[in-house]
Amino acid sequence: MKPIHQVLAPLGIPVCHPPYTGTSPEFITYTLINNAYNDWSSGKAFSEETVYSVDLFTKLAYEELADQIKALLRAEKYVVQTGPEFYEPDTKYHHLNFEARGWDDAGWQI
């Protein structure tokens, strides 16, 4: 599973862990929500689940960009959920949240 910043790099906008300190009219931040072993059998784990919060901030129309984000994440086998959406009046950014959930299935045995 590729890291989020590599997956979203083709968008050509800044992608980073918060805080974003630039001045771009659109950027993406991501944070780790959870990382855990799954699929246990006889005391051994066979996969690892990683969940990220991916947040799009934009002052532009975002529908097409949101579709591109989902497509890039899904192409890397992330399961994506969208929402909620906010408008932040103090910064004038639209803020759209995505949850990206992915699994590494390397046959690990702990």
Give structural notes.
With about 110 residues, the protein is of the alpha+beta class. Helix content is about 15%, strand content about 50%. It has two helices and five strands; from the N terminus they run H-E-E-E-H-E-E. It has a five-stranded mixed beta sheet with strand order 1-2-3-5-4. Strand 2 and strand 3 form a beta hairpin. The longest helix has 13 residues. The chain is elongated. It starts with a helix and ends in a 6-residue tail after the last strand.
Main attributes of the structure:
single chain; 110 residues; alpha+beta; five-stranded mixed beta sheet; 5 strands; elongated
| Helix-strand makeup class | alpha+beta
- How would a crystallographer describe the biggest sheet? 5 strands, mixed
Strand order across the largest sheet = 1-2-3-5-4
The geometry reads as elongated
Uncertain regions spanning at least 5 consecutive residues: none
Helix segment tally: 2
**Rg on CA atoms, Å:** 16 Å
Number of strands: 5
Helical proportion, percent range: 10-25%
How far apart the termini lie comes to 20 Å
Give the amount of beta strand, in percent: over 45%
Q: For the residues shown, what is the average pLDDT?
A: 88
Order of SSEs, N→C?
Answer: HEEEHEE
